[in-house]
Each structure stands twice: as C-alpha cells, then as structure tokens.
Amino acid sequence: TDRYCVFGHPIGHSKSPSIHAAFAEQTGEAIEYTAIEAPLDDFCGAWQRFVAAGGRGANVTVPFKEDAFRCCDVLSTRARRAGAVNTLVLSGNGKSSDFKVHGDTTDGVGLVRDLVRHGVALEGARILVLGAGGAVRGVLEPLLAQAPQSLQVANRTAAKAEALAHDFSDLGAIIGSGFEDVQGPFDLVINGTSASLSGELPPLPDTLFSPSAGAYDMMYGAEPTVFLRWAAARGAGTMDGLGMLVEQAAESFFQWRGKRSDTAPVLERLRRSL
Ligand code: ATR
User: Fold this and answer.
1) Do 16 and 246 touch, CB atoms closer than 8 A?
2) CA–centroid distance, residue 12 to ligand 1 (Å)
3) Do 24 and 130 lie in a common domain?
4) Could you list the active site residues?
5) Rounded to two decimals, what is the model's pTM?
C-alpha cells in the first residue's frame, strides 16, 4: 500500500483524508492517506521522514505551502510562479536514493474546474479577485489561461495587488489596485481574502455585479460567508470553496495515481457533513 498524507498545522479538522479515501475506493487504488501535523519550524524534515517511512506523495496546507516550495527538486511552472506548493510527488523508486521531489500547485486548476462545473463562462469575462495573499497567487495563472476579458486584483494593501499584477502581466490583461479603485460591473467576483474568517467584508461598491454575475468565496462552511450573503443580496449567484477543495484534491490524486475521480458524489457527501 502506497502512503500519502496531508501536512498542516493545525491539521485535526482536515477533510482531505476522507476525500482521498473516497477517490481511492472509486478508482480501486490501494493507498493509505493520513493527516500529519508538521512542526512549524521544520516542514522539510517532516516530509523527509515521511518519505523515509515509505511516503510517495503529499498535500500541503496552511501554513506550509511556501516551505514545501523550498524542499522540491523540480517545480511545475505554475508552482514556481505561485511561489507555493500544495502537492508533492515522488518520482522514481522512493526506497533508493535516485528519486526526485516534484512540487506543483493544484489550487488554481481546482478553482477553474469548480467554476466550470457551476457553469461559469470564464472566456471573455470581466473578473475581479479580492485579496493578494498566497491563496490568490496560486490561482491567477489558471484563471488567466481561460482568456478573460480583464482581471483586476484588488487588495486592502494596494501595493501588494499591484506587485502581483506585475508578476503575472505577461500572461494576460491583469491590473492591481486597492479596494477604492474597484468599480465594476464584473461578471465574476472571487473572494480570496481571509476576511471571511473574521466575518469581515472588504469595502465594495453596490455597483459591483453585472446582471448575471457570479460571486465565489474560496472559503466554505455550513453557513454562507459574509461575502456571499452580501453578494446574494445584490443579485449575484453564489458559490463557496468546497468544490475547489474537492477538485484540487482530485488533481493531486491524478498526479499520484494517474486516475481521474468522479468528484460530484464526493462533494455531495462532504456538503451534507458540514
Ligand atoms: P492566504 O494564504 O489565505 O492568502 P495571506 O497570504 O496572509 O493568507 O493573505 C491574506 C489576504 O487577505 C491578504 O490579501 C489580506 O490583505 P492585506 O494584504 O492588506 O493584509 C487579506 N485580508 C485579511 N484580512 C482582511 C480584512 N479584514 N479585510 C480585507 N482583506 C483582508
């Protein structure tokens, strides 16, 4: 049985073990997937111990995505640009010394797949992304690859959004700003700030949404986030990040096992368990 895990701190409430157990059952892959709390000051050591004990790959979550980036031998282009890794894959025979550690980030693919599943048209769309932290950095490349008409990144600290837009400007029409320079209308607004965690809402104009706009929050919970409630009251269709979680997991599973999972029943079950 090949071993995989998710590293985080804290990690107790991670849904990844149950998601991957469902994928394994669906595809008939014999894998073991556990949750491991790595020490805050030694992520790479924890990963190396896991490999020495027979680990073949791992997911990485808060706060280790940047640390994981630094313990890879090979990085995918999107991981290099994101500066973060959420998927570690061992190539070669893990028991000998000739293996390499590959790092990728599947968060952006997960977001795009979930948006497509919701029926959101990304090509030609006017997109606004709120926030300029690690979560946003990881999704910009796959979003720009969908050829939106425009992509604005707005952040509380405007300079961070401007720097981010500069880093991705060769991939498409992207601009960065503070919240005060957000006007709209937008066809899709994605909340990638951590403001939802504290029940806060970025200051946004009432003119934000086009008539058939969608609002997506990368967070999820049993109840809609403040941002989604605010968006629903202004006529936008709302989507939370639970689908993104399942889709990024499916992409990681594919990289490890070469098999695609059916995400719909897994998402449905997870939704009921919130
Ligand atoms: P993550 O990995 O979740 O992206 P992060 O890198 O710390 O975490 O980024 C958090 C993001 O949420 C930032 O864009 C932050 O804005 P600043 O860059 O101005 O700090 C944003 N954020 C956090 N709390 C917020 C709040 N109450 N209102 C608006 N934005 C907030």
Assistant:
1) no
2) 23
3) no
4) 65
5) 0.96
